[in-house]
Design brief:
The structure holds 3 protein chains of 3 kinds. Chain B is mainly α. Chain B has helices at residues 8-25, 31-55, 81-99, 101-107, 110-132, 136-155, 160-191, 196-209, 213-231, 239-246, 249-275, 277-283, 285-306, 310-331, 334-364, 371-374, 382-396, 404-414, 421-446, 464-482, 484-500; strands spanning 61-65, 74-78. Chain B is globular. The model of chain B has no long low-confidence stretch (mean pLDDT 87). Chain C folds into 2 domains: 2-84, no CATH class; 113-152 and 164-254 and 266-301, no CATH class. Classes of the chains: A mainly alpha, B mainly alpha, C mainly alpha.
């Protein structure tokens, strides 16, 4: 229940908001994609910090003998981060491909300018 | 032997994922037969699951995805609502794909048609998984599949316009996914669970305990707003006209009729099975949904009146109809929830029919979408005109059509809503008036008597699959409209299961 | 008079001739005779354009203010949320519960994987991972829809800015590095259940090795080694194997089907242990490798052959 103790989550949230603001309010398509990646990074940092336990080891247990769970960090957030990273790779690839196609067509990365070009084409 | 039917939800999901791979391996557009077959098979399997649940005592089962039980392993669950909605979605998708077949061939470059069908398979799998899932993180993964696949449906038509529309759609969807994901993680961090059943228990305890009420409220708000952005509730509906207006009719029908409804169904499932309806009402999020729903009903209809493009008009009307669904959720009484679910069904059936028939009308008008060129084109394509008329009647809420029932139920539920009654009734009246206005205008335009200057044009023949599909659409619509009693009692039982049986 | 006009307008709107909002514009157009010279027209468009620019600038300013306000509000809400969250890095948080204990304490004996994360994502929560590999597949198809223009007429070859194949340092270093990278990637794939790593990381390393090969030795050479057809076959086979293997374990996981899984966990710590985890890791790795490589090729060349 303390902001200073939860500094890692706080940083993650600030990263999330920075990325989110970039994704929503930046005019440049490439910057939007960078914002998307920052946002995802914030989410993964938040998720990874959720699983961390002080003085605990990576969850790779010895092949034999009893295992004391308290010696290891929580493996669930690590697994979720893995899944999340794959999702964000796929989404970035798709948005970048869209970006390349639009640039080839309109020679600009500004969404508003693209819109104006498109309107002109229609007329 | 009957127990084997419990495998069907899992088979639907995995088989449609597998069929996407198979369709990818095929050459040319033969992939479409795989899609047709899978959608049909999925519909049949959903029927069986529904029948099984209706005949069983509990009406509900949980299926393990792996060898372990709830908090450890992953699972899917099916009550009455899940197979029913999957069935509706599959039927609508099948009819849209078949009905828009000719336009798919003409709009999408030949070498990309195969990938278009692959994407439809993936959408099908993702929607089935969204409906059946019992794990919140699995829901997120399949929401992402749904997003990417539906964006690909849009951009397959390879025009500058549709690429820009796809970009906007993608950006809004990503905002929604970001909110959804961070909400899910917040909930995980304060409960330590991901499965619906355990989450429900943990959240109920936490809310009573009161120790994490603020993060819980924020998390619920983030999840709800994420799914609202994705389904296009009022302040976030700007992507809708571009998206639905520029895609090929089959894609518009699937996007508006099925995919946005899939997100809404997931929202319902999360609200009832994860958050718990009492906690949801206690957070006060439903009042915000109520306000935005009503605003969406009015603003969407006004925008629909102002536009010149028939597809934009239908898209704005979509925004208005989605407002109805959220208004019902915001009212929060039992009748209003039934009305909302009924609205999902009737809107899904009607809107896809309208998009498909509008595609036919635009074809008859020479590919143009504005009202001036659409004038009297219903005489050239009689089937499309008739179907559009039926869809418009259903949308306006004429009895015997499906669109009438939810409006009736909303009006009935308004009297249980206390202080909200007044707003609901006024919004219903205004929205219906506006609906009548813009649909009457469109119908009058397309049925404008043939003058001397355009009477000589040749009639375009509707292709057989278009005619058959649209007639099936009308039949389904009227069947739902006439058999509203069994359906709404089914929905009510389903909500009962959602709320009480775990 | 006024009423008459309105009803006329309304009937015109009904029949799709005019727009209610465009009433004024429509009137002006009909009133103004069409003898505006081209010069005037050009001037008019200029004025309109400058007005548009001004509007964009204005909206840009509003945008900036709006974005800052929005950012601050969101940061405020989320900071407040963080304040109320359980303490960071303590073992006394809700997420440390029986699920975590089960995964760490019994995961090794139940799944046969020493790496608990691998055991979790490929056995306990395998449905997520199935979805995850299909996200990759979906993205590949989507990028193919956007970028693949092999059916269009081939453009003239793009002039490469840097030709690495002529650089002796790069070429000889790559000759040493590429085999190392590929072997390392394969090691990580195969040892996914024993050590950190697994399908996604191993596949990404393999993909990086192939991309390096393509950069140094040229795309044509690389496409001879890893052609479009091979990539397709590998992706389809891996995903089909994934689907079938997981269907089997989902199907046998429910007792009412009366079938029991014949796959055993094996001895934890052995290379051939963990049941389906190693084959699944390899399948995921191959999919990821092919996806990365085809992303590179599609972005660079616009086609896969």
């Amino acid at each position: 229940m303390n902001l200073l103790e939860n500094y890692e989550e706080l940083v993650a949230m600030i990263l999330f908001v920075i990325g989110f603001t970039m994704l929503v309010f930046s005019k440049n398509l490439l910057k939007k994609i960078i914002g998307l990646n920052i946002m995802d990074t914030g989410v993964y940092l938040f998720l990874a910090s959720m699983g961390y336990i002080k003085d605990a080891l990576t969850p790779i247990v010895p092949a034999e003998g009893e295992v004391n769970p308290m010696d290891y960090i929580n493996p669930i957030p690590s697994g979720l981060v893995l899944t999340g990273i794959v999702v964000s790779v796929s989404v970035s690839a798709l948005t970048l491909a869209l970006c390349v196609r639009l640039y080839k067509k309109y020679h600009t990365l500004d969404l508003d300018e693209m819109y104006m070009h498109m309107k002109k084409e229609e007329e | 032997m009957m127990d084997f039917l419990m495998n069907f939800p899992f088979i639907t999901i995995v088989l449609s994922l597998f069929s996407a791979v198979v369709a990818f391996a095929f050459k040319g557009s033969r992939a479409r037969f795989v899609t047709y077959f899978l959608l049909l098979a999925g519909a049949v399997m959903s029927c069986f699951v529904l029948a099984y649940n209706l005949s069983s005592e509990t009406g509900y089962f949980v299926y393990r995805m792996g060898h372990y039980d709830a908090p450890i392993g992953n699972e899917i669950s099916a009550g009455l609502l899940e197979p029913f909605f999957v069935l509706i979605f599959e039927v609508v998708m099948l009819l849209s794909v078949l009905g828009g077949k000719r336009r798919i061939f003409s709009d999408i470059p030949e070498e990309k048609q195969k990938l278009f069908y692959v994407m439809i398979n993936l959408c099908h799998a993702a929607l089935a998984a969204l409906c059946y899932t019992n794990d919140i993180f699995t829901a997120y993964v399949f929401v992402e599949i749904c997003t990417i696949a539906s964006c690909s449906l849009l951009m397959a038509s390879d025009k500058g316009k549709s690429l820009i529309a796809a970009t906007r759609y993608m950006i809004f969807s990503l905002i929604g996914s970001g909110f959804l994901l961070i909400g899910i993680i917040l909930i995980y961090s304060i409960t330590g669970h991901l499965l619906f059943t355990n989450l429900y228990e943990a959240i109920t305890l936490l809310w009573r305990d009161g120790s994490y009420n603020f993060p819980l409220t924020v998390a619920i708000g983030l999840i709800v707003s994420g799914l609202c952005v994705k389904s296009g509730l009022f302040p976030f509906h700007f992507w809708m006209p571009d998206t639905y207006g520029t895609a090929t009719p089959a894609a518009s029908a699937i996007l508006s009729g099925v995919i946005s409804k899939g997100y809404i169904f997931l929202l319902f499932k999360i609200i009832f099975r994860v958050i718990g309806f009492d906690v949801f009402l206690a957070t006060g999020v439903q009042n915000i949904l109520f306000v935005f729903g009503i605003l969406g009903m009015v603003v969407g209809s006004v925008s629909a009146i102002r536009t010149k493009n028939i597809k934009f008009m239908i898209a704005f009307s979509s925004a208005a109809q989605i407002g109805y669904i959220y208004m019902g959720l915001g009212l929060g009484t039992r009748t209003a929830l039934v009305a909302s679910l009924f609205q999902i069904i009737s809107h899904s059936l009607t809107k896809s029919m309208l998009f498909i028939s509008a595609g036919g009308l635009c074809d008859a008008a020479g590919g143009k979408q504005d009202f001036a060129s659409l004038r009297s084109c219903a005489h050239k394509n009689k089937v499309a005109g008739a179907v559009f008329l039926a869809g418009a009647l259903s949308m306006v809420g004429v009895p015997i059509f499906a669109g009438f029932i939810p409006k009736l139920l909303f009006a009935a539920s308004a009297f249980e809503g206390g202080a909200k009654m007044f707003f609901v009734l006024i919004a219903l009246a205004v929205s219906t008036m506006l609906n009548v206005m813009y649909f009457m205008r469109t119908a009058l335009t397309v049925y404008y008597p043939l003058g001397a200057e355009n009477g000589a044009q040749a009639k375009t023949r509707a292709c057989a699959s278009f005619a058959v599909c649209t007639i099936v659409f009308i039949a389904l619509n009227i069947a739902v409209g006439l058999n509203s009693q069994p359906i709404s009692s089914l929905l009510e039982k389903g909500i009962e299961l959602f709320m009480n049986v775990r | 008079m006024m009423k008459n006009k309105f009803s006329e307008k309304f009937s015109a709107w009904l029949s799709g001739e005019v727009d209610l909002t465009e009433k004024i514009a429509e009137e002006k157009r009909t009133e103004a005779p069409s003898r505006i010279s081209k010069k005037e027209e050009a001037e008019e468009t200029k004025i309109i354009r400058s007005l548009e620019k001004k509007e964009i600038k204005l909206s840009f300013k509003e945008y900036k203010v709006l974005s800052v306000v929005f950012c601050v509000i969101l940061i405020g809400i989320l900071t407040a949320t963080v304040y109320f969250l359980p303490t960071f890095a303590s073992s006394d948080v809700p997420a440390v519960n029986e699920v975590y204990e089960h995964y760490v304490a019994q995961g090794r004996d139940e799944t046969g994987a020493v790496n608990t994360v691998a055991g979790m994502i490929l056995d306990y929560r395998a449905f997520d991972t199935l979805g995850e590999s299909f996200v990759l597949f979906t993205a590949t198809c989507a990028v193919l829809i956007l970028m693949d223009d092999k059916h269009k007429k081939p453009k003239k070859e793009m002039h490469e800015t840097v030709n690495y194949s002529r650089d002796p340092i790069v070429k000889s270093m790559a000759a040493i590095l590429i085999p190392l990278i590929l072997v390392f990637g394969a090691y990580i794939l195969v040892n996914g259940h024993l050590s950190p790593g697994g399908g996604f990381s191993g596949g990404a390393i393999l993909g990086a090795g192939f991309i390096l090969y393509a950069m140094v030795y040229g795309d044509e050479q690389a496409l001879k080694v890893l052609s479009e057809r091979k990539i397709k076959v590998v992706t389809i086979c891996s995903l089909s194997f994934y689907c079938l293997a997981k269907s089997y374990s989902f199907f046998t996981g429910n007792e009412f089907n009366g079938v029991h899984s014949v796959i055993s966990a094996g001895t934890p710590g052995d290379i051939l242990s963990g049941g389906l985890i190693m084959p699944l890791n390899i399948a995921v790795g191959l999919v990821v490798c092919c996806t990365m490589y085809s992303f590179y090729m599609l972005f660079k060349r616009g086609r896969m052959n």
